[in-house]
Automatic annotation (TrEMBL):
Residues 1-21 are annotated as: Disordered. The keyword Membrane applies. This is DUF58 domain-containing protein. Residues 245-346 form the DUF58 domain. InterPro entries: DUF58. The chain crosses the membrane at residues 57-77, 83-102. The keyword Membrane applies. Keywords: Membrane, Transmembrane, Transmembrane helix.
Length: 447
């Protein structure tokens, strides 16, 4: 028994030692893991604060920091008191600027526009409303409102709690396009402009600046027979729209004899109808920059295409508006692409024209016409809108891309030319110098 007891004691001591060592190792690992987590959190917090600080310092502020650091280091090394004083002054300026960043503007900001669509050259009114949703009075501040590529700066006066102030807005819409209005951004900055802090809201509006359009006359050019179409002035023997009763003529079908009138008059009388027609029209606009003399000529072409498109929609025609698409330089020559604008309503079509611009890498107008003819079947009329740099031979190739039973009309935009109507090879070519020429030339050349 005596020999056994020491062995048990030794075993128990070894077990106790192992347990104590394991417990200490576990606590050490936990401490190390906790310290690592604290370090990561502190590092992330420090990086976040550093990023915010870097965003808050303006270029002028960085210049002051650099000048102050250089002044203190150089003055201390060389013993130049003036440089040390300059460094201290820079540090004092920066320290005095920092309190202007403290606190937050308790604002609710809303932007209202009178209209979200306007014609190029017009003006859109609106207002921006600022409410102090805090419990304390807010000091005067500044509000920035991005408008397209520009910036509107608005001063915010002293606002009491729950007080609202409205600032009027006047936004000129000089040229066609889509203007992004917003988001409004409050700006906190020191008087010198060393530091700056911004807060943006999510209130963003899109202002559609439509191209100028004119009212063009409706025409029957290119219409095809269709029982579900609209009646015209042309009289036919059989259709859906009844017109009148006339005397029988040799060649008339007997199915159209009106027997009641025949009994009254004693001679054969037949029914006469107005021909019903329906048009499927395509308006083709090339976007190659080389086909237009300048930006104003391209705007004229866009306005002409938009005028014709809105007229066709109001006439109830089936319409396809096809424009060139951008083609990457690497696949140019191997890829053909066009783009369709939505023509469900005049507003949708004009919204689509707002984003149209000239392209350097795109198909020429004759290529756009060829692809349109291949993809749009049963076209009765095709209107090609192009610039002055497209030669007559290219126009002929563009017109020949369409089937023989498709009437082709060319609207050639040239601000330096006199308005005229030409019919080379049976193809109607209308040359316009200003948008108002389109209506009169359509009456002369396409009625």
């Amino acid at each position: 028994m005596s020999s056994t007891e020491p062995g048990r004691t030794g075993t128990a001591s070894a077990s106790h030692t192992r347990l104590t060592t394991a417990a200490r190792s576990g606590r050490t690992v936990a401490l190390v893991a906790g310290a690592a987590r604290v370090w990561r959190a502190a590092r992330e917090r420090g990086m976040t604060l550093a990023e915010r600080a870097a965003e808050s310092v303006t270029p002028a502020g960085w210049l002051v920091i650099a000048a102050g650091s250089a002044g203190l280091v150089t003055g201390a090394i060389l013993g130049w008191v003036e440089w040390i004083v300059a460094g201290i002054a820079s540090a004092v300026m920066l320290a005095l600027a920092l309190p202007f960043l403290f606190g937050a503007r308790a604002y609710d900001v809303e932007v209202f526009l009178d209209h979200e669509r306007v014609v190029a050259g017009g003006v859109v009114g609106g207002e921006i409303r600022i409410r102090n949703r805090g419990r304390s009075t807010q000091l005067p501040g500044r509000l920035d409102l991005p408008v397209g590529d520009g910036l509107v700066e608005l001063g915010v006066p002293l606002l009491r709690a729950d007080h609202v102030v409205a600032q009027p807005l006047t936004l000129p819409a000089e040229r066609r396009g889509i203007i992004t209005v917003g988001p409004p951004t409050t700006v906190r900055s020191d008087p010198i402009g060393l530091v700056r802090r911004e807060h943006a809201w999510d209130d963003v509006h899109r202002l559609y600046v439509h191209p100028r359009t004119v009212s063009v006359p409706s025409t029957s050019a290119g219409l095809i027979r269709d029982l579900e179409g609209n009646p015209t002035r042309r009289l036919v023997e059989a259709d859906m729209s009844f017109h009148a009763i006339r005397e029988y003529a040799p060649g008339d079908t007997r199915r159209q004899i009106h027997w009641k009138s025949t009994a009254k008059t004693g001679q054969l009388m037949v029914r006469q109808f107005e021909e019903s027609r329906r048009s499927r029209m395509a308006i083709v606009l090339g976007l190659a920059a080389a086909e237009f003399a300048d930006a104003d000529e391209f705007e004229l072409a866009v306005s002409a295409a938009a005028s014709l498109g809105t007229r066709a929609i109001r006439d109830g025609r089936d319409l396809d508006v096809v424009i060139g698409a951008e083609i990457p330089r690497a696949v140019r020559g191997r890829l053909q692409a066009v783009r369709d604008l939505t023509a469900a309503s005049p507003r949708a079509l004009l919204d689509g024209f707002c984003a149209v611009r000239t392209l350097e890498e795109t198909m020429p107008v004759e290529g756009v016409c060829r692809l349109t003819a291949e993809t749009k079947t049963t076209l009765s009329i095709a209107i090609i809108v192009c610039g002055s740099q497209v030669t007559p031979s290219r126009l002929r190739r563009a017109a020949l891309a369409f089937p023989a039973d498709t009437a082709v009309l060319v609207i050639r935009c040239d601000e330096r030319a006199h308005p005229r109507v030409q019919t080379p090879g049976g193809m109607g070519v209308l040359t316009i110098g200003v948008l108002d020429d389109l209506a009169s030339l359509m009456l002369r050349g396409a009625a």
